[in-house]
User: What shape does this take?
Amino acid sequence: MNRKCPFVFHALEVLETNTVYVYDRTISSGTYGWVVLCKGYSRVRNPNRAGSSGYSLKPIGKTFALKIVDANKILSDPVASRRFNNECEITGHINHPGVIRSFTQMATSLESTEKPGTQHDVLILVMEFFEGPELLALIKDGPLGRGLSRDGAPETERAARIIFRRICRAVAHLHSKFIIHRDIKAENVLVDDDFNIKIVDLGYGKKFTPGVRHTSPLGTLFYASPEVLDTKNGYVGPEVDAWSLGVLLYCMLFRTFPFYAEKADREIDEVAVASKIRRDRLRFPTGFCVSSEAIDMISSLLDRNPGNRLLPADAVNHPWLKRY
Ligand SMILES: Nc1ncnc2c1ncn2[C@@H]1O[C@H](COP(=O)(O)OP(=O)(O)O)[C@@H](O)[C@H]1O
Ligand SMILES: [Mg+2]
Assistant: This one.
């Protein structure tokens, strides 16, 4: 359930871009902040408005997604602070239709709705707004929701192929700019009615240098590769996104994670999941009707040996993605 953004703001003005962002609704609430939808206006001189400011607002016909984070929370937490800075830096420079872009950032204070009269310092990232649900929703009950069993098979696989091809292209673009995402998952990909995609949440994103290894275990457990969990040897970058893409495609086609474990009370058993990722052989559920090329694509992305793993730049040329 989304918690409504607890800060009051009706209109935020950014002089640098001459845009006024007028609050519309809260899209999402996360650990560190909120994403809200705003409509864009420009302030134009209006001599008829004597007695008021002498200005009126004119719609510019654009919508924006504003990520609002509590500045005090962020500044006292180095990981959160790095996440926010990374996201601003990467989205501010990237230019690809499959990756979210941001236009500007600001620091301001907003009134709390929980304690009226109290001001909170916030940091705001202004992004383009992408109209479309998370890929997770499509897997749960959208075009991918019927799974691959029986009559749903060809359409499901075809829809998955179109979406996944676009995701791979976007990730390959990030890699070509030496950026790794490190948190690719069904919640961080938005998909519209025409299956256009947008990758969001670049907070764990990082510049990588070929040959330089990292050991920070970031991202989301279900999508983490064995070498991210075994911090001994570390990882360079593109190969960990490749593994997450393999998990994502598995979820799109089979509606379940490749490595999954629950405790008796149905809570997720994180220790068992991590151990399965490290050691278990990749298995596919039975009773699904799926092409051998799709199976090969998933197996190549989920290759336990990072050196042999299919990378997104090559994945776009895999026979499964070449089909129409
Ligand atoms: N630019 C955007 N346009 C539309 N929806 C967005 C946008 N950015 C984020 N969202 C929505 O908000 C959710 C949370 O944003 P995200 O950046 O993933 O933050 P976090 O996961 O850290 O809370 C996303 O999963 C997506 O549903
Ligand atoms: Mg997210």
In short: The chain has a mean pLDDT of 88. Residues 27-28, 30, 35, 65, 100, 127-130, 134, 187-188, 190, 200-201, 203 surround adenosine-5'-diphosphate (ligand 1) (CB under 6 Å). The two ends are 38 Å apart (CA to CA). The first strand starts at residue 7 and ends at 8.
